[in-house]
Amino acid sequence: MENKKTKQLKNFKIDNEQKAGLTTNQGLKMAEDEFSLKAGLRGPTLLEDFHFREKMTHFDHERIPERIVHARGVGAHGVFQVYESLEKYTKANFLNDSSKITPVFVRFSTVQGSRGSSDTVRDVRGFATKFYTDEGNYDLVGNNMPVFFIQDAIKFPDFVHAVKPEPDTEVPQGASAHDTFWDFFGQNPESAHMIMWAMSDRAIPRSLRMMEGFGVHTFRLVNKEGKAHFVKFHWKPALGVHSQVWDEAQKAAGKNPDFHRIDLYEAISKGDFPEWELGLQLIPEEDEFKFDFDILDPTKLWPEEEVPVKLVGKMTLNRNVDNFFAETEQIAFHPGHVVPGIDFSNDPLLQGRLFSYTDTQLSRLGGPNFHQIPINRPVCPFHNNQRDGMHQMAIHHGQTSYHRNSLNNNQPEPVPESQGGYEHYQEKVDGRKVRERSESFLDFYSQAKLFYNSLASYEQQHLKDALSFELGKCKSQQVKDNAIAVLNHIDRQVAEEVSENIGALLPQENNEVKSDKKSPALSMANTIKKPDTKNVAILLNGAPDSNKITEWVKVLASSKINFSIVDKKVHSLNENVKVTDTYDTADSSLFDAALLISSDNKLDKKPLEFIEMSFKHFKPLAFFVQNKKSLDNIRIDLNDPGVFNLSTKDITDFIKGIAESRFWDRK
């Protein structure tokens, strides 16, 4: 059931599915919309054709500047609800009432590529959430990785320029495998930790529904008594954290460049609402200096073993957008959109973001009134003395538009903190004006080593393969050598293997961090594993028994597993079961598992390729063949892990394999 605030967000809608007469934007009914006004049937178009000019002018300006970063995104509506009051830590109302349902809008995105790039490229993913609270909009603007490439915002333009397509050729698109990015890395070792995350499987998520989110920065929570805690925000997905393998991600980019956005849209449409739990890491202000890292450094995480994550609430995405441009493209996030009880730290990257976001929205959305666009409007009333400006959509009444005034009883007037007014946390600041790096920010390599140590062996190999691929695409020998020199500070074995693969110089001296410290929370091997909403391809070869297929389809559906039946052509097997995909449209990279059902003596080429590619990508496979000879030409060891013969095993065994996702110990 929709609450009042959710309905408010949907009020600004023009329903073009209803029968209505065509009008201009001024409401004038038009009798003709196919032909411009001309001087004679074959004469020139007349300047007085206001309808043509209005229609064409709007078309000419339909595209707004895309975001410089995070240009390619997809969004959805949802709700958030806290489990129990957090008044011990914050006075934010939406975090203090477990009965309160707060509407949210979430936008997921890639960082490097343009709006036309592919979903499954290797990249950081944006994870931005707008909470429409009773006290105003609160934006939690983060990524699917808990750290970032730089420590100070003044370097942000440099980093983005380096990772973007190179300016002389405008290539590559949606990729970091090029010289300028790795040159930046070699010259800025503070990126060492983030580069390990970016080269890990975290950068190629299986689904947006299956990735973590992080606020990245250190913020403050402040309670009614003025007591402050430093905080880091986490989003923990109910489906666990899962990724693709690199070869699979590349194939998916070619087969379906919209793979992630379609996956999200279809899940919500089916009622498989994605869920995340909000987690908080909390450090009392008096404990700020009790750690072997600086808690304000955005290139550092707080290990969960040292600072546990407290799960405090749940977010559910339950409604797709009605219009991509009006909502997903026009939504404006800003880490400075906060509510009472949430404040900032002196993280130098965060401090810079507090300036740049508003500056960016002015360019993208045409002026200072972007907050009046429906998707950006708060659900609570807002009043101030700001007037006019481009795209002003409100009609303000009254004589005064300044503070203080006597003509309007000083309305609108500031609200005291005791009545919910926002006041910044009063932190003592005392120091010299400098342009320097804090000595506490100088450890670039310890947490990069911690991350690598924490990975499972197959994750470590994937990371080394990614480094070899990315650096192998670089043309400059100097760039390669400098990158290896940085890796040599993290892990000698990684530097040795990658340098040998790409033909780069390995430093004679081993400078790696000497540490075997691990954080199990950093490995996806320890994530939640369940079959829910996974996609299974049921591959038909010949004319197998439709009754058996019907039986298995019911079992898969009862386990909340999605499936597509694939054959040479679309047709109905019986009243209940229909082939939905063909071998020309389906591809193994778009599914989590495959079930082959064959009645012929030999497998056709396309189902054979489908199965072998699924096996190569470590996915669970099941077979049910009427003639064992049909498997004679298959290049798969049927006794390997994750391969299920349904002639001898129950389909529930296959479902357990689907929950496992990958079988990394195959030969």
UniProtKB/TrEMBL annotation:
CDD domains, per the entry: catalase_clade_2 (cd08155)
Q: Name one GO biological process term.
A: response to oxidative stress
- The answer on whether this UniProt entry bears the keyword DNA-binding reads no
Instruction: Report a single Gene Ontology molecular function.
Output: catalase activity
Per UniProt, the ranges with Polar residues bias are 402-412
Tell me where the cross-link 3'-histidyl-3-tyrosine (His-Tyr) is found.
H334-Y357
What is one GO cellular-component annotation here? cytosol
UniProt keywords (A-Z) are: Heme, Hydrogen peroxide, Iron, Metal-binding, Oxidoreductase, Peroxidase
Q: Which domain of life is it from?
A: Bacteria
**Residues of the active site:** H70, N143
Supply the PANTHER family for this chain.
Answer: CATALASE, CATALASE-B
Please explain the role this protein plays, according to its UniProt record: Decomposes hydrogen peroxide into water and oxygen; serves to protect cells from the toxic effects of hydrogen peroxide.
Q: What is this protein called?
A: Catalase
The opening ranks of the lineage are: Bacteria, Bacillati, Bacillota, Bacilli, Bacillales
